[in-house]
Amino acid sequence: MRPKQMVVPSPLLTAIPAAGTAAEAAAQTAAQTATERTAMTDPTTDTGPLPTSGLQHVATFCGQCSCGCPELYLDPAADDDRRVVITDDFGAAIRMSLVQLAVIVDDARHGVLDGLLADAR
Questions:
Q1: Could you tell me if 72 and 86 are in contact, meaning their C-beta atoms sit under 8 angstroms apart?
Q2: Which of 4, 5, 24, 90 has the fewest CB atoms lying closer than 10 Å?
């Protein structure tokens, strides 16, 4: 039996305060989206690897190649909703909470990704 899935509130789903006109509302939505997108992307993507000083290394997901590998870190200085950092081999990173990571791990343990990965093995 699959455990009950946790629902994690997302800052992307927060309500936008009412604006005076439709144009103001659209501008406010665009500004909020741009802020959220900036907060979730790594500004060093085009200039080199993500700096990892101050992060606690947890795991390297090695594909046994020489081009770099995705890695998992914890950022003890980050807010709870951005504590987990996963870097890829292109220099980009995503951040999430430990609760969100737990959902991914639980889903993987229960076979949610098995069909997707069947051809990769």
A1: yes
A2: 4
